[in-house]
Task: structure prediction
Amino acid sequence: MMKYAMVFNSQKCIGCQSCSIACRSENKVPEGLYRLQVKIQGPKGVFPNLAFDYERFSCQMCENTPCVSVCPTHASFMDENGIVDIDANKCVGCLYCISACPYHARFLNPQTKVPDKCNFCKDTHLKLHGEPACVSVCPTDALVFGDLDNMNDPIYEILSKKNFTRKKEHLGTKPKLFTIPNKKGEIKL
Amino acid sequence: MNEIWGNESVNAIVWHWPIALYLFLAGLSSGAMMTALSVEWMNPKRKAPWDAFVKAGVLIAPITIIVGLIVLIFDLTKPLNFYQLLIHYNLKSVMSLGVLLLLFYTPLCAIYAILRFRLTLSKSFLWPVMNLFGGVLDFLEKNSLWFGRLVFALAGGVGVYTGFLLSAIQTYPLYNSPILPILFLASGLSSGIAACICFGILLFSEEVSKEKTKYLLTMDLRVIPIESLLLFALFVGLYFQGGDKALVVLSALSEGSWAMIFWVCVVGFSVVIPSVIALTALKNHAYKVNFILLNSISIMLGVFALRMYILYAGQLYLGA
Ligand code: SF4
Ligand code: SF4
Result:
């Protein structure tokens, strides 16, 4: 019993895309589709104080999951470790979960005919090496993976010391993907 | 330019036209059934020969819902897994609740139709089957008022659930409105009335009564202002929520081909044309068959256009 979570530290991210590539090869994501994207925006600010914004797009591992509650067959579910996953055998392919995910994290996998998304490499890298592929390749340690139910986990310390944000918090989905936002910014009116 | 993190517009449209067709057919079925039952209940004797609109309605209802369900099943990416919908139920999912509802509605609807066409069926090659179930049919006929009320309630449920199906989705502002289920119920009813008029006249011309035709035409004319008000409330409601939602309304009503479809097909076919016909050709409820048919066809097209518009514009205009 764990509650897996992830921190994306956008202050440490350099936008190198190694996480995306690791994800693609680990999970055999079909051409042109993505479980994970790190988008780069910028530069922002006034020279010499320039900065880029990095944003991670992937399943947010919501605690209150719109995708699970709409699924008519319980094919979308949250496992005992807090990972939101899809049971291909139960799925009928109604695509309700794809439209219900407010983070656009799901896509239809044309090979399996079942919705696909990040599941923290549950069946692949996590199983073999104890952490998702993206976490293990990140050169700057911008990604931290851990267990929210364990007070001694390093993720606990980070989240108690740093400011973090979660996307679309007003929806009440309580994502378990936390972002440590960029400190540098620009004044925009 | 190719962004290094990849293409952003994958999967922009999740649900395509078959879903709109299903939403239309389900609404039509529910509306036709409710219309048929109301017409039937207007006649205190409630005995054969049945009115043309009763016959048309009870025939349309099972056919459209069955065709709709077939469309829906073949639109699943895994149609062969369809049976999973019947074994696993998630009572938090509107889709599951819909499956449960349809599980009762569809067969009962068909049985009601059999009841109303009993005479014809008993004379056809199906007579042995009809004789076999004679006792059951006698029982249902004796209690047909209650049986009808049950079917009416289920039909109402089918009419609103299609709206809840979309309104449960937070991702798309145009779907996520409490007005949508009522709008779908009202427009489904209006298409159902139109279908009863149209097919009643075309298929059962001997049993058509002018008086009931006028009654249904008046009913349909009353639904039009209600529908327009609901559409107005849907957009104004979103607009007053401000921010992204206000932007969604503005673009959904003014930008691109879907805004055109809204004004030309939705407003044109379901509000303008029926109103013009009602005020000119059918003034004082004159009984002019061609205009009555034109009117009903226009209303049905308008309701289909509304389903298409909500489905696609909802997924395309996100305001961000
Ligand atoms: S981000 Fe989307 S797919 Fe992931 S748990 Fe939340 S709703 Fe479900
Ligand atoms: S597509 Fe599959 S996983 Fe998604 S809601 Fe439908 S049945 Fe559930």
Chain A has a mean pLDDT of 94.
